[in-house]
Amino acid sequence: MISSELLEKYGALKKSFQKNEPIFEEGNLPTHYYQIISGEIKMSNYNDDGREFIQGIFYKNQSFGEPPLFLNQRYPANAIAVEESTILALNKPSFTKLLEENPAISIQIIENLAQRLYYKSIMSAEISTHDPEHRVLKLIDYGILYFNFPKDNNGYLIHFTRQQIGDLTGLRVETVIRAIKNLEKKGELKIINRKVYR
Question: Is residue 118 part of a domain?
Answer without folding.
Answer: no
